[in-house]
Amino acid sequence: MTAPPDGTLRTLRDEFTRFTMSYQFGMEELLTKINILKEEFTHLHSYSPIEHVGSRIKTPDSITAKAIRKNIPLNFDSLRAQMFDIAGIRITCSFIEDTYKVKDMLAGQHDVRVVEFEDYIANPKPNGYKSLHMIVEVPVFLSDRVQPVFAEIQIRTIAMDFWASLEHKIFYKYDGEVPQSIRDELQDAADVAGRLDVKMEHLHNEVQALDARREN
Ligand code: GTP
Ligand code: MG
Question: Model pTM greater than 0.90?
Answer without folding.
Answer: yes
